[in-house]
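Course assignment 3, question 2. Fill in each field.
Student: A.L.
Task: Predict the tertiary structure for the chain below.
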Amino acid sequence: MTFRNTGGSAATSGTVGFGTHIIGLLGTDWGTVSSSQPLPAPIAAGTARTQTYTVCVDSWRVPLGMRVDTREVTATWR
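Answer field:
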């Protein structure tokens, strides 16, 4: 993911939140698992930082034939 700071001061800390959905064989959304990671701070004003995240879900939550899909990503920074 690329985080771009378009503000006038550095983002010195923050959190990235993920909403990972458990999708059934026929496309039914069976549930959402939330997780969070730290923002790749600091991000100076007018610059961008790229960070790769691994989102893990317990195997018992994803039975055979189902899949995971991270559909929601939010970021908060200070």
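Instructor remarks: The mean pLDDT is 94. The CA atoms of residues 16 and 37 lie 5 Å apart.
Grade: pending
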